[in-house]
């Protein structure tokens, strides 16, 4: 088996996948489990490419290959579909639907197009409708010959135990500072040493957070988030500065990056907080997680969203302020 594409910080998972490919009994379903932003989708696409690669051929593009099928959030409506086709930001449906799973299953009754293997990527599997999960379970119980499933899960506990039990798990770990630095140097070569250091500190091991930190210039926002969490914000002054720093009309990407950064800030604080503080942090983090799932789907008012983020951080710092 040739040595495949390296994944910084996830080499063990990659080698485990390559070893399975070279074995006589390849498991038919894989669960790629780990926090959001650890590179699971890129891993799944490369893994699927290795799976369907023709002997001696180049690693194919997973998006374009006829034997790699990716189930993901679809555009919310026809207007959003047009935005996607034009390469613009677009809103998505809330869940991966049963219709998507059924369409995929209809393809499974035919043989793969180019070889004897096909890959199904579901990103993320923990966002499937309940009916879609039940439909997928049937395929996992009786997988067609040559069909392999790669289920990406940010919160694998949300999946049915019957789904998890049929999958071999690949766990994705947070990256060490030197590994994060290597990722940032590779993907953001324009970032200077100070930007890299700030991004690495803020990201808490997540390359996705580190890269968006630099791309969206979140250094000042990070400092304000820390100030609200540590000092509280009874007079709303810090939240006003936070809203001003976000801008009047921030892009969807900037809003999502701010949500992920706020979750990371809370997660870091959880380690040193006392029991009472942990309860507040967990409550605020849970609400931020819900907002992060809804933000790509719903058209939130940007100003209200950043004030909500600030309010949740303040609620974790001040007993009299509670998350709405």
TrEMBL record:
GO CC annotations on file: DNA polymerase III complex
SUPFAM superfamilies in UniProt: P-loop containing nucleoside triphosphate hydrolases (SSF52540)
GO biological process: DNA-templated DNA replication
Cited Gene3D superfamilies: P-loop containing nucleotide triphosphate hydrolases
Highest taxon, organism lineage: Bacteria
Pfam families per record: DNA_pol3_delta2
UniProt cross-references to InterPro entries, sorted A to Z: DNA_Rep/Repair_Clamp_Loader, P-loop_NTPase
Protein name in UniProt: DNA polymerase III subunit delta
Biological source species: Novosphingobium colocasiae
């Amino acid at each position: 088996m040739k040595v495949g594409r390296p994944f910084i910080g996830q080499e063990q998972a990659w080698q485990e996948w390559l070893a399975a490919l070279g074995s006589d009994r390849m498991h038919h379903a894989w669960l790629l489990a780990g926090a959001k932003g650890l590179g699971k989708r890129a891993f799944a696409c490369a893994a699927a490419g290795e799976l369907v690669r023709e002997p001696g051929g180049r690693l194919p593009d997973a998006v374009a290959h006829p034997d790699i099928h990716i189930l993901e959030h679809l555009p919310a409506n026809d207007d959003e579909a047009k935005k996607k086709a034009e390469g613009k930001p677009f809103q998505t449906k809330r869940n991966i639907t049963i219709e998507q799973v059924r369409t995929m299953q209809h393809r499974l009754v035919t043989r793969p197009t180019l070889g004897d293997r096909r890959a199904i990527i579901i990103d993320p599997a923990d966002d499937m409708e309940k009916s879609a999960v039940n439909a997928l379970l049937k395929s996992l119980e009786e997988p067609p010959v040559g069909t392999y499933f790669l289920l990406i899960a940010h919160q694998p506990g949300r999946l049915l135990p019957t789904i998890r039990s049929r999958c071999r798990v690949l766990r994705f770990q947070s990256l060490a500072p030197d590994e994060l630095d290597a990722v940032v140097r590779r993907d953001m070569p324009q970032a200077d040493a100070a930007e890299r250091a700030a991004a690495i500190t803020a990201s808490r091991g997540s390359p996705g957070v580190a890269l968006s930190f630099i791309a969206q210039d979140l250094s000042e926002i990070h400092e304000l988030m820390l100030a609200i969490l540590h000092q509280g914000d009874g007079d709303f002054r810090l939240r006003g500065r936070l809203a001003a720093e976000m801008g009047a009309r921030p892009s969807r990407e900037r809003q999502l990056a701010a949500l992920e950064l706020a979750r990371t800030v809370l997660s870091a604080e959880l380690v040193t907080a006392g029991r009472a503080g942990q309860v507040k942090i967990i409550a605020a983090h849970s609400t931020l997680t819900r907002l992060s799932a809804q933000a790509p789907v719903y058209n939130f008012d940007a100003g209200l969203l950043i004030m909500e983020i600030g309010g949740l951080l303040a609620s974790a710092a001040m007993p009299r302020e509670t998350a709405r």
